[in-house]
Amino acid sequence: MEEEIIESSSIQNLWEEVRDLSLGNPPYIDHLPTPPTPLQFLRHYITPNKPCLISAAVPHWPALSLWPSAAYLRTTLSTAAVSLHLTPTGKADSLTPHPTAPSSLCFASAHVETLAFPEALDLVSASGENKTVAYLQQQNDCFRSEYAPLAADCEAHIPWASEAIGCSPEAVNLWIGNNLSETSFHKDHYENLYVVISGEKRFVLLPPTDVHRMYIRDYPAAQYHYHKDSGEFTLELDDPIRYVPWCSVDPYPSPHEKQREMEKFPLYFNGPKPFEVTVKAGEMLYLPSMWFHHVRQSPDDTGLTIAINYWYDMQFDIKYAYFNFLQSIPYTLSNDPTLYKIRNMESRFERFLCNSGDESDVIVTKRDVRDGSDNEED
């Protein structure tokens, strides 16, 4: 088959123009002091597929004062059976060395156990001991099933978002972990309203237009298995073997690997800066559908990071068609800078799901939200 080639300037112009015309200059995103009206949210954020951080998002929620207390959680959820994810590193649904060919990578999923909440919380608190990291989460509407006794402490949906989007959340999920749990780059086909209750979450964000910078490739799927008797993990490939399309880039390579990673993934490391945002307790991040995101977290004084998120179905409209067209474009990266052209050698992901009345303008301030400080330069 004849190889398709496009000039790198075409892709680079797209990256720059979407920032200049719509998204703004990274690492900044819009910072709203209070929630927008439904019309403002639809007009300024959902329609342009643009993230924002909302400070006083949920000041009336009892969860903000109640959930940081482990005693309250243990009492309220004393009989609840919950899903606990276990890994040796805190990195689940991410790339790790292949179990039989360590020079290659595979896509590893966590070992999942159903435990009584008090026991599960003990394991989260003890994460890092005995080379085991525990994370309370299950991306299947777990808040409305496993954590139903906590329902009165927050809203069943975000009213202004539900009105703007035109539906109720498809799923509501709860996340309880510590600083050892990390989420690798991926995207979701949902409009995501992410509220931090305790601790902080640090997001690295790239818009869907930057899909080529993610170096999405097919990796063999594998599963961690935890053996209680020995306290050890084994990693086993799925049988029959299957492949998962996943983002190859780690935005935080270790110092001794950084140069090699930059050489492997130049479109990411040499391209426009990603957007970065730190979401603190009581704040809400609107993460638009199909945005690539990497997440780290830090706990509060109790040693826990707690968050809840609302997934609303996205509209599979013209922007979805545009994204599918864009990701189908082949690209390559020539070693000769005078012939800097782009060709996609990993384009087997055409249909993949990576996981997976007049109102006044919104009041917006600009903030470098990586560390919560205003107007800080690199």
Automatic annotation (TrEMBL):
InterPro entries: Cupin_8 (IPR041667), JmjC_dom (IPR003347), RmlC-like_jellyroll (IPR014710)
Annotated ranges, domain JmjC: 134-327
Signal peptide: none
Family recorded in the similarity comment: Belongs to the JARID1 histone demethylase family.
Name of the protein in question: JmjC domain-containing protein
